[in-house]
Design goal:
Blueprint: E1 12-15, H1 21-30, E2 34-38, H2 49-57, E3 64-69, H3 74-84, E4 88-91, H4 97-101, E5 107-113, H5 119-125, E6 131-136, E7 162-164, H6 173-180, E8 184-187, E9 192-194, E10 197-198, H7 200-218
Parallel strand pairs: 1-2, 1-8, 2-3, 3-4, 4-5, 5-6, 6-7, 7-8
Antiparallel strand pairs: 9-10
Helix pairs in contact: 1-7, 6-7
């Protein structure tokens, strides 16, 4: 069954790479639906489990926490699930479908997009995911690069919800939504003043642009 988002449905917004409670609260107050907590060791946005718990505790109800991992050991993921109880897991490395599904927890699978990557084949392979996060390919990092990819590489009818990432910022997120019509958008470096430090003004501008485009598309 193909998934398609109706024009009247709002585009969900995830602010990823949150490292402090103040930034999380600013994102939520601006209208974010989810915040991303990065547990990847090499990321400048990495948080400890203690930090993540403190951030999650500061959130109001009905805001989803997403725990992001890159090729993590099973024990680490299980520890985060037990202590944090995130709303969703996000696997951003080369994790197998069986590994992703084995935790019996809602999950997203990130795919780094470039020419030659068969996204429909990826969607079929990771059919158990709640959604597929499409990010820009980089040989140097698994995400958070601030780079865009060619949105034209995304098939117009995708079988599972698309979470669009990769170089999004207030200046281009409107065009991205008009072209891709994703279920959600995910931003990290595009709303930062420094890696891991969010800019409240940029967050507000990003979310305002998403809201404005949704309103235009719903008419």
């Amino acid at each position: 069954m193909m998934f398609s988002k109706r024009a009247s449905m709002p585009t969900r917004i995830k602010i990823c790479g949150i490292t402090q409670a103040d930034d999380a609260q600013a994102a939520v107050h601006a209208g974010a639906d989810a915040i991303g907590l990065v547990f990847a060791p090499k990321s400048p946005r990495r948080v400890s489990l203690e930090q993540a718990i403190n951030i999650a505790a500061s959130l109001p109800p009905f805001v989803t926490t997403v725990a992001l991992f890159v090729n993590a050991a099973r024990a680490e993921v299980e520890e985060v699930i037990h202590a944090l109880k995130p709303g969703c897991l996000q696997f951003h490395g080369e994790e197998s479908p069986a590994y992703c599904a084995s935790f019996a927890w809602p999950w997203l699978k990130a795919v780094r997009v470039k020419a030659g990557v068969d996204l429909l084949q990826c969607a079929a392979l990771y059919a158990g995911a709640q959604g597929m996060l499409l990010d820009a390919y980089s040989p140097h990092a698994h995400g958070g690069t601030g780079e865009c990819f060619d949105w034209g590489l995304i098939p117009p009818q995708f079988p599972i919800p698309v979470v669009l990432a990769g170089g999004l910022q207030p200046e281009n997120v409107g065009a991205a939504i008009r072209q891709v019509r994703p279920w959600a958008v995910d931003v990290s470096s595009g709303v930062e003043s420094a890696p891991g430090v969010k800019d409240v003004t940029k967050i507000a501008a990003f979310i305002k642009e998403v809201t404005n485009v949704d309103l235009q598309l719903s008419r």
